[in-house]
Amino acid sequence: MRTFKEIISIPNLVVKRSDDVGGFFGYWTDPLTQKRWNVCFSSYGGWEHLSVSGRKTPDWDLVCRFKDMFWREDEACVEYHPRKEDYVNNCETCLHIWRPTEEPLPLPPPEYVGVKGVSSSDVSAIAGIMMDSQTPKEKADFLHERYGDNFNRKERRILNAKGNSKH
User: Fold this and answer.
1) Domain ranges of the chain
2) What average pLDDT does range 5-28 have in this prediction?
3) How far from the centroid of its chain's Cα atoms is residue 12's Cα?
4) What is the pLDDT of residue 167?
């Protein structure tokens, strides 16, 4: 986490209220769009937390900008998707960034996410070539092995309509 001094020095950030133990509420105005985003930051109970809300839900790129504003490059943070029974939604346009402070955040190996140094268009082209060279049955087997029953329903219906076995 950046220091409190670094955080309150972020350009276009206005701190409206703060406490003595590492929390504050305020807003940040995007210099590109002039949109105002509400921010609430805290560091309590073994967690650093930032919530960001506005008239619309912030998109991925904006959340990444906030992550970079409040945390350093070498710090991993996360947005959680809790179990349904633990779900809380007090603001429909709010997203949260979390980072545990007492233990490292477990992360999947980078190769589980993608291939470093390869653009998304290259990955799409490679995947298209690989999938085009396979029979429908080979595609279905590959997708089922990789994603279980969660692979594309449309693709599964097409494969089933062609007489391939269901998984």
Assistant:
1) 4-100, 110-161
2) 88
3) 24
4) 46
